[in-house]
Design a protein that fits this description.
By secondary structure, this protein is mainly beta. The protein is built from one helix and 20 strands. It has a single domain, classed as Hexapeptide repeat proteins (UDP N-Acetylglucosamine Acyltransferase, domain 1, 3 Solenoid), CATH 2.160.10.10. The strands form two sheets. Strands 1, 2, 4, 6, 8, 9, 11, 12, 14, 15, 17 and 18 form a twelve-stranded parallel sheet that branches. Strands 3-5-7-10-13-16-19-20 form an eight-stranded mixed sheet. The radius of gyration is 15 Å and the shape is globular. The two termini are 16 Å apart.
Length: 171
């Protein structure tokens, strides 16, 4: 696995988490129990801290970075879609960030909220609980998210991580 310390900044990965061998983890990155990090994802805690909670999926090609002023925090039971970019933001428990979307400095995506695929959540923007953020730049649609779909997706990725930990073999 491509897991690196950078000086005294060292990753902490729960033993029940699954990190794919083609993912890259650098520096002050903390990954919680039963979370998954998929191929080509990069979590780079070189200047700031990255915290990924429990049962959270960081999917293929996602880039997670932090700066000293703004850590990147992803809560429990979150789904971060393929090719997303998170930078110095907070994703609260049970939220979904769709494929190809971007969430920038000091933005907050609250519990049960969804950032639609391809949306751009600007600096300091707040996506309220159960809201949907859609478009470039993102606009808010109150009450348009689906918590049960997010929970279902998060649970599927926990199961898939367990499957990969048991069955993935290099050929």
């Amino acid at each position: 696995m491509a897991i690196y310390a950078l000086g005294d900044r060292t990753p902490t990965i729960d033993p029940t988490a699954f990190v794919h061998p083609d993912a890259v983890i650098i520096g002050d990155v903390r990954i919680g129990a039963e979370s998954t990090v998929w191929p080509s994802a990069v979590l780079r805690g070189d200047y700031g801290t990255i915290i990924v909670g429990e049962r959270t999926s960081i999917q293929d090609g996602t880039v997670v970075h932090a700066v000293a002023e703004f850590p990147t925090v992803v809560g429990n039971d979150c789904v971060i879609g393929h090719l997303a970019h998170l930078e110095g933001c907070t994703i609260h428990d049970g939220a979904l960030v769709g494929s190809g979307s971007i969430v920038l400095h000091h933005a907050h995506v609250h519990t049960g909220a969804t950032v639609a695929a391809g949306a751009v959540v600007r600096n300091r923007m707040v996506v309220p609980e159960d809201a949907l953020a859609v478009g470039v730049p993102a606009v808010i649609k109150e009450g348009a998210s689906d918590r049960s779909a997010i929970a279902h997706g998060a649970a599927l990725y926990v199961a898939n991580g367990q499957r990969y930990a048991r069955e993935l073999k290099t050929l």
